[in-house]
Amino acid sequence: MFLKVQLPWNVVIPAESLDMKGLILQKSIVIRLLEDFASRKATKDLGYYLALTTLESVGEGKVRQQTGDVLFPVVFSAVTFKLFRGEIAEGVVHKVLKHGVFLSCGPVENMYLSKMKMPDYNYVPGENPVFMNSKMSKIEKGTTVRFIVIGTKWLEAQREFQALVGLHADYLGPVS
């Protein structure tokens, strides 16, 4: 679920904002790195970028001939979030449909729990539709559900993941 990774990155400092005093230059590099990191949502291999934790090293700057900007190679540690097949996790229901429910878990907002993967639960239509079992356990909008990840799919265009989840194992379902 959470991964600690070490990443190489290139930080470009615009020529007009360069001030070669040591601390101010390092501050500019860190600020630009944080901005670049925040704007990049996720990757297929590492999942969603959550937090930059440590700046490990800053390499020697190279001046770009056309613009005069300076490119600094950096290495930093970060925390990412990625779901794996077979993993047990919890999510919150945000949409209830006749054939299943959609959940969100951390930054993953498109997790589908099919009616077929909810043993013993039946759809109950109404103004606020729910899935209910014989023990009166409900899955409705706002319910936290413990599930198993069946599979994930990376969508390159949106730079996000989708997941198919199920309740077909012990101790899975609505969490009290």
Automatic annotation (TrEMBL):
It comes from the Eukaryota. DNA-dependent RNA polymerase which catalyzes the transcription of DNA into RNA using the four ribonucleoside triphosphates as substrates. Its main location: nucleus. Belongs to the eukaryotic RPB7/RPC8 RNA polymerase subunit family. One of its GO terms (cellular component) is nuclear DNA-directed RNA polymerase complex. It is found in: Nucleus. This is DNA-directed RNA polymerase subunit. GO terms for biological process: DNA-templated transcription initiation.
